[in-house]
Amino acid sequence: MAITDWPEGERPREKLLDKGAAALSDAELLAIFLRVGVPGKSAVDLARDLLSHFGGLTRLFAAEQAAFSAFPGMGPAKFAQLQAVLEMSRRALAEEMRFGDALNSPAAVRDWLRLKLSGLPHEVFLSVFLDAQNRVIEAEELFRGTLTQTSVYPREIVKRALAHNAAGVILAHNHPSGVAEPSQADRWLTDQLKTALGLVDVKVLDHFIVAGGTGCSFAERGWL
User: Fold this and answer.
1) b/e for 69-96, b at 16 or more Cβ within 10 A?
2) What are 204's strand-pairing partners?
3) Residues 134, 130: Cα–Cα separation, whole Å
4) Residues of the chain with pLDDT > 90: what percent?
5) How far is CA 41 from the centre of its chain?
6) What is the pLDDT of residue 56?
């Protein structure tokens, strides 16, 4: 049955306008993006198939063009549209980060980090540098690959903090395994970075680990 034949209150677009985007399921939100289905499947059916095939929104967003375009009903045009939506979301969150207090309103920072790091097949280490009012100065990817105490260099982070005249920093990296729980190596590394940055009066405000669509905050655990 086509979506236009559904009861009006069950159609994703009308439901969104009536109840807000948060009331919709992942498949319904994706169906609005897709706009149309394929022969024999509504946009919602197609959205469900996409989510099942890729394993959820996070993995769908991280899919390479070839894998995305190979799915029946998708193609380069849809891939380009999806990437444009994701990039607009990142930029909107980045703007929000820059004009607010990163500690009093941490949601934008965390949402940006999740959107930036979720689904990546490799580990990435970011530093978000803040001024004395906890406003974001710059966010930089500093290391990539397998992150260990021997591959993340405290002196490089100290150099970048001094270059930005930062008063504080939020550290972040991802776990491609999908498990956000910090390892002992993560905690050891955080302690090393906290000590090194403390020598130049730069405070480590948080270390945020992203895995899949979830995250873990060192500050919330009381580890900083």
Assistant:
1) eebeebeeebbeebeeeeeeeeeebbeb
2) 169
3) 5
4) 43
5) 30
6) 87
In the numeric block, the tokens 């920072």 are attached to: 109
Model-level pTM? 0.65
Please report which residue ranges of the chain form alpha helices under DSSP H: 12-19, 26-34, 43-54, 57-62, 65-69, 76-98, 107-117, 154-163, 184-198, 218-221
Q: What's the pLDDT band for 89 if we cut at 50, 70, 90?
A: confident
Residue identified by tokens 């159609």 is: 11
Q: Tokens representing 206?
A: 């948080």
Rounded CA-CA distance 162/151 in Å is 20
Which amino acid is it at 178?
G
Q: How many CA atoms lie within 13 A of 38 on its CB side?
A: 11
Rounded Cα distance between 62 and 222, Å, is 32
115 neighbors 90 (Cβ within 8 angstroms): yes
